[in-house]
Amino acid sequence: MRCTVYANHRRTEIKERRSGFKKKNENASPGYYHTLLDKYNINVELTATLRAGIHRYDYKDAKEGNIIIDLLHRDEVLDSWIEVVSDHEIRGYRKSRSWATEQPVYFYAKFSKPFTSYGIALNDAVQDSKKRVEGKNVKMYIRFNNPGIVSARVGISAVSAEGALKNLEAEMPDFDFKKIVKSARQAWNDELNKIQVEGGAPSKSSQSQPYSPYLYNRPQPKQKKVEDPDYGKVKQTIFYTALYHCFSAPSIYSDVDGQYRGLDQKVHTANGFTYYTALSLWDTYRAENPLLNIIDKKRTLDFIKTFLAIYEQGGLLPIWPLATTETYCMVGNHSIPVIVDAYAKGIRNFNAEEAFTAMKAA
Fold first, then answer.
1. What residue numbers bound the domain in which 30 lies?
2. Is the pTM of the predicted complex or chain greater than 0.70?
3. Looking at the predicted structure, is the pLDDT value of residue 18 above 60?
4. Both 247 and 182 in a single domain?
5. Per-residue pLDDT tens digits for 107-119
6. Residue pLDDT, tens place only, 145-159
7. What is the tens place of the pLDDT at every residue in 221-230?
8. Helix (H) and strand (E) counts for the chain?
9. Rounded CA gap, 354 and 312, in Å?
10. Chain-centre distance of CA 106, in angstroms?
11. Rounded CA separation 278/318 (Å)
12. Judgement on whether residues 52 and 172 belong to the same structural domain of the protein
């Protein structure tokens, strides 16, 4: 869901309502993001759980505050709709096409304060009094009087709006932003603590003055002493940044009840495992997957069971699945070495005979 806060609630064109921000005002860390929207002087904070996110907007002393939900933004829209449930809640749907030829996402949003008015636009024309609008160019404004701080909890799902609500209530039942940030940071600390490193590169040795006959017996300018950086800390930062990247993808695609939308466009249930998407296997089979086979056997097992579910539903192990589409990016089938490496490292709690059959079919 694309959200933009802005001043005039009738603005729907991006050039009119967008706001810039300065890098110096950004603060980003695992599980938290903050910036300032310069045009409107609005503080924005974001954090998330596995299947839900929370936005917090501080409008300060503004007499009114507005949010736009822009379902047209980004890739080609195939279908979309948005609906007002109450003065605290909205829900919607967007199906788009880009690299994934069909990418559906449902959302359910709850606000910490009631909105005093709203409007839903179709093709940039506000449809007065309508609570639900469907089309390829759907946007919505929500207006708050004397807003102060407004929070929005948003759950998403590839299955249904009901699934998005279920994810939201299971993972983010209230608006306690600080608690959610703390939980997100703890979750990331748990991941990054799977490997602990100490030390790093030694400090640079001080460089002696290079010899030059032209400088002999001449007075030299006094060199300003510059302290060496903490090379150990620098190296550790590089290491943990790379480890953070390892845990950033693939992406969870099943709901809290196990339901997911498969590559056959049908809804299935993942029994006893988490279903994943964005499996860039030709990128990850060489290094990332062998690492995860050692430090995160549970996630690796979920990957393999995802592979086998895809095989059962379509007759082929995944190559580069994204959302509900097999992109067929790159030659070969790199799920095979992932399965073989996992099996060699003792990960066996899957149907190995079926996996072998699937490998031969690939």
1. 3-186
2. yes
3. yes
4. no
5. 999 999 999 999 9
6. 999 999 999 999 999
7. 777 777 778 8
8. 9, 20
9. 9
10. 15
11. 10
12. yes
Q: How many CB atoms lie within 10 A of CB 145?
A: 13
For residue 13, being part of any structural domain is answered with yes
pLDDT computed for residue 333 by the predictor: 96
Region at 325 (left for phi over 0; alpha for psi -120 to 50; beta for the rest): beta
Nearest Cα neighbor of 104 from 248, 250, 262, 258 is 262
Single out the residue in 166, 186, 206 at which a domain terminates. Answer: 186
Residue 110 counted as domain residue: yes
Under 8 Å CB-to-CB from 137, ≥6 apart: which residues? 71, 72, 77, 121, 122, 123, 124
Tell me the three state secondary structure of residue 79: strand
CA 286 remoteness from chain centre: 24
Residue-level pLDDT at 225: 76
Q: Is 117 within the bounds of a domain?
A: yes
Amino acid, single-letter form, for residue 343: Y
User: Is 224 a member of any domain?
Assistant: no
Say if residue 208's pLDDT is above 70.
no
Burial class of residue 222 in the structure, from the number of CB atoms within 10 Å of its CB (0-12 exposed, 13-18 middle, 19+ buried): exposed
What does the pLDDT average to over 193-209? 72
